[in-house]
Design a protein that fits this description.
51% of the residues lie in helices and 20% in strands. The chain has a 6-stranded antiparallel beta sheet with strand order 1-2-3-4-6-5. Helix 2 packs antiparallel against helix 4.
Length: 200
């Protein structure tokens, strides 16, 4: 049975206890992020908690139903688990499961952030971009993030062989944010386009 508006409001209230709540389009529904970590997904009127790391095995042991997503007619079981009706009626239990999903999502995010040290491993980046940035003195992810997309772009334009494009600038900004350029917020893209058009 699809979630009613008051249940969704209740869910937002519970999630907000753990940190800053955001919403992003995902799987034809939208995912809910707390402190930039995906904690769950709302799809077809149902809410599923993300079961990464230790949360997944706990959700499995608790008998929670997994999200089955159909891709080109092929059913795929994803690491998302539906809260049972009993949990919705027991706020303490509900918070317990949400916190479990939140803690494991934050831990996974921290692991990923510490694991990515090479520029080529970031979204939108590759070996040739890493080499080009290395030639202008930007050797790792920390240096890239510290300088920012615009400063890196200007250095490449000044010292690099090729004149970087607006697509490259957007890709660089998205890489620093840790996302694909297609999902970089439109207001950030527009600001970058305006800046690019005004750079001498």
């Amino acid at each position: 049975m699809p979630l009613q508006e008051e249940k969704i409001y209740h869910l937002y209230r519970l999630l907000s206890q753990f940190g800053e709540l955001k919403r992003k389009n995902h799987f034809g529904g939208y995912c809910l992020l707390v402190d930039n970590a995906i904690v769950g997904v709302l799809l077809d009127g149902h809410f599923y908690l993300r079961g990464c790391l230790f949360a997944g095995s706990h959700f499995e042991a608790s008998g929670l139903n997994r999200l089955v997503y159909s891709k080109k007619g092929i059913p795929l079981e994803l690491r998302y688990y539906q809260l049972s009706e009993q949990m919705w009626h027991d706020e303490k239990l509900c918070i317990y499961y949400i916190e479990l999903a939140y803690r494991s999502a934050i831990e996974e995010l921290q692991q990923k952030c510490s694991a990515i040290r090479r520029i080529k491993d970031l979204p939108n980046m590759n070996m040739s971009v890493e080499r080009a940035l290395g030639k202008i003195g930007i050797y790792n992810v920390d240096e890239l993030r510290m300088l920012g997309a615009k400063a890196c772009f200007l250095k490449l334009r000044q010292y690099g062989r090729n004149n970087p494009s607006i697509k490259f600038l957007i890709g660089l900004a998205a890489a620093i944010e840790g996302c694909h350029s297609a999902v970089l917020p439109s207001n950030i893209k527009q600001e970058l386009i305006n800046w690019y058009n005004n750079v001498d």
